[in-house]
Amino acid sequence: MTIDKPVFFFDCDNCLYHKNAGILQLMRQRIVDYIKNMGIPDKEAHTLRAQYFKDYGLALRGLLKHYDIDALEYDRQVDGGLPLDDILKPDTQLKEMLASLTTTRKWVFTNAYYPHAERCLKLLGIDDQFEGMTFADYRVPDFDCKPEIASYKRAMEEAGVSDPKMCYLVDDSAANVDVAKSLGWTSVHVCYEVPSNHGDYQIKSIHDLPTVLPQLWKSS
Ligand SMILES: [Mg+2]
Question: What predicted TM-score, i.e. pTM, was given to this entire model?
Answer without folding.
Answer: 0.94
